[in-house]
Design brief:
With 409 residues, the protein is an all-alpha fold. Helix content is 46%, strand content 1%.
Length: 409
């Protein structure tokens, strides 16, 4: 009957191994007020299987209730606020920079949990047709299972993207034990690993476990009930589904808040220490999206087996849209917009140069890739020209647009 606010930091207290060690009889979260992930340990991530969910009251709950309703020494209780068992972050904090204040995450080593969940999604996909759909079942069950796996993949991608441009936030007061600064930029290597996880699990074709056999079986039912569209095409619009996740991943990595935080947090790191930079982020995303054009084609491609796959072409056009938008913003979302604009334009020029180089071997290219790269080159050229014309007067203190009105003969 005693209620507490949400505490979404509770599930980040213990490592994945500790959660599965069986040592936490009450709960492997410090609080019952967190929304925790489901703990299913996959082969290759350890032998022991702990509790599947955090199912009990934790040390934070006892501490908070003792402060609010107990009769003990409040000064002594307050001195325990920096105890790792008492870490706290609530609903409004979930929109901030601290990646440990998130719903449905788990563990102090989120990359291990995320990789475990991806392995779980792959396990689901590998068994869809043989085991998930049983004799007599509708094949629409395979579609349901695939979408479950895709939803799980999306969830952990979102969880890891929160670690890019992130900082630990503490509510410590001056003089509290540990003397922690209230804001500490997350370790550069952790941000780097998180960024690479997002790229690896959304940009690449093999991240989705698709095959002709699977695609020809993930159909839909035609029942007139909730959740079914009787007029929908039985075949799942797979390009739309995958592009949706790819576009979401690009938004997670390149949205204004993330770019601003990455840029700002560079100044929070002491000289000589490893730092994750805005330039590194844009480099990695661009490289991950356009790796096919790093070298000239080594063989002749066909329309059935193109040099750049359909999923990757969609990703590249989506990335191109983002980079053009970022390169053309004149008023900007923050001071970070200025370096973002120049870095984006630099990458656009590099993409155009590489695309033009590949197009020199047009005889080896399939029609899809050739048309794709021709459009890429033209769009970048026109966008950079338009950006220069629009923003050139910024050097004089402001942007001005001039229109010449003529009369047709």
């Amino acid at each position: 009957t005693l209620g507490l606010r949400h505490n979404f930091k509770g599930s980040s207290r213990y490592s994945f191994d500790e959660i599965n060690s069986g040592k936490h009889e009450g709960s492997w979260s410090t609080t019952v007020m967190d929304y925790t992930g489901i703990n299913i340990r996959m082969p290759g991530f350890g032998e022991a299987q702990g509790k599947y969910s955090a199912d009990g009251i934790g040390p934070y709950d006892y501490w908070a209730i003792e402060y609010g309703y107990g009769s003990g020494d409040l000064e002594k209780l307050l001195a325990e606020s920096s105890d790792p068992d008492h870490q706290y972050g609530t609903d409004e904090d979930a929109f901030g920079p601290d990646p440990t204040v998130r719903r449905y995450d788990m563990g102090s080593d989120p990359l291990t949990f995320a990789e475990n969940q991806v392995a779980f999604a792959k396990h689901i996909r590998a068994n869809l047709l043989d085991k998930f759909v049983k004799d007599g079942d509708s094949w629409s069950r395979a579609r349901r299972g695939y979408l479950i796996s895709l939803s799980q993949q999306t969830q952990v991608v979102s969880m890891m993207a929160n670690w890019v441009g992130s900082a630990y936030v503490y509510r410590d007061k001056k003089g509290d034990p540990g003397d922690r600064a209230p804001i500490q930029a997350v370790e550069a290597e952790r941000q780097r690993q998180a960024m690479q996880f997002v790229i690896d699990n959304t940009f690449n074709d093999d991240a989705y476990g698709l095959s002709p056999e699977l695609l020809t079986h993930i159909t839909s039912d035609k029942w007139w009930d909730m959740g079914n569209d009787v007029l929908a095409d039985p075949a799942m619009p797979i390009h739309d589904r995958i592009l949706g996740l790819q576009a979401s991943a690009l938004t997670m990595l390149l949205n204004p808040s993330t770019l601003q935080r990455v840029y700002d947090y560079q100044m929070f790191v002491q000289d000589g220490q490893d730092v994750f930079t805005l330039a590194e982020l844009l480099d990695a995303v661009t490289e991950g999206a356009w790796s096919e054009i790093d070298e000239a084609p080594s063989k002749k491609y066909s329309d059935k087996s193109p040099m750049i796959s359909s999923l990757r072409r969609n990703l590249q056009m989506e990335h191109l849209d983002r980079m053009i938008d970022l390169s053309m913003a004149s008023d900007g979302f923050s001071a970070a917009q200025k370096p973002v604009r120049s870095l984006s334009a630099m990458h656009l020029r590099a993409i155009k140069d590489k695309a033009d180089k590949v197009l020199e071997s047009a005889g080896k290219l399939d029609a899809y890739t050739r048309a794709h790269l021709q459009e890429v080159s033209l769009r970048i050229e026109k966008a950079l020209d338009a950006d220069y014309i629009y923003n050139v007067s910024d050097m004089g203190g402001g942007s001005h647009m001039f229109f010449t009105l003529g009369q047709a003969d």
